[in-house]
Design goal:
DNA polymerase, domain 1; 44% helix; 10% strand; 3 domains; single chain; alpha+beta
Length: 272
């Protein structure tokens, strides 16, 4: 069942002959909608909640549509929705995680992002559209651990971009600044140390490990995930932070890796 209310009827019922409805009219609109459908609730919440951001879409000739599920939309004369209310935060998170999996994101990366976003959903059951609410959520993470706050910011940015594209809602994260910090410079080998390391290498396994870390700049977790079965004739399957990729192999490195496969099972770790 769908409840429809034209803009003209809304103005007439509220006593507005001219002008544009604003935030001050929210309570009046909610009372009106509750009167049209007594006992109605939206998205599991008691009472009526008309989202403030939809007021910007209300113009003459438009219609407010309220679905039985509680979803509210504003449509023009052609029936095209201008705004619609997103589902609960949990629903948006689960839909986004499915989107990640369908896009080929690595399982480990998806699980990490799922933990962050489900924690956010527990604190905010309704997806916040006020940037200050999101900033307050991010501030709870310790100021001396800015990278953790940055990870949360990245997860929320991805979620809100997905929600904006999927549910036609404003992307509030565009108004939330990215946490900034100075990266610590990684430890580097001096020229003499690098020369000493290269002269100490004796086996194919050692050459492969050094090539992965220093030649291909693998993260430790990427090297640890490698299995012998990931080595193909001309490429290497690498489970990265965000996705699984096929990395082309130079002949000398390919030959080293293929020699390591002899007398081993494909599921064995490349670097035991």
């Amino acid at each position: 069942t769908t409840l429809e209310l034209t803009y003209a009827k809304l103005l007439t019922t509220l006593g507005h002959e001219l002008g544009h409805l604003g935030v001050k009219n929210l309570e009046e609109i909610e009372k009106l909608l509750a009167g049209l459908r007594p006992g109605m609730t939206f998205r599991g919440l008691g009472g009526v909640e008309f989202p403030e951001e939809l007021l910007d879409s209300l113009r003459p000739g438009m219609t407010i549509r309220i679905e039985e599920s509680g979803t509210i939309s504003v449509e023009g004369s052609g029936g095209r929705p201008f705004q619609c209310l997103a589902p609960s935060t949990q629903d948006a998170v689960e839909a986004y995680l499915i989107h990640m999996e369908d896009g080929g994101a690595a399982d480990g990366y998806t699980k990490v992002r799922a933990r962050k976003l489900r924690y956010f959903a527990r604190q905010h059951p309704e997806l916040p559209t006020d940037p200050e609410v999101i900033r307050a959520y991010l501030r709870q993470f310790r100021t001396d651990n800015v990278p953790t706050r940055l990870d949360q910011w990245k997860a929320l940015s991805a979620l809100y971009k997905f929600a904006s594209d999927t549910y036609d809602m404003p992307n509030s994260m565009l108004k939330v600044d990215k946490p900034r910090f100075r990266k610590k410079s990684g430890q580097r080998l001096s020229r003499d140390q690098a020369r000493l390391l290269l002269t100490a290498i004796e086996t194919d396994l050692e050459w492969a490990l050094v090539t992965c870390y220093f030649g291909l700049r693998f993260r430790r977790v990427e090297a640890e995930r490698l299995r012998l079965g990931d080595v193909k004739s001309d490429y290497l399957i690498v489970q990265g932070k965000e996705r699984t990729e096929e990395l082309p192999l130079l002949p000398f490195f390919r030959d080293q890796l293929l020699r390591l496969q002899s007398n081993h099972h494909p599921s064995d770790r490349l670097f035991p």
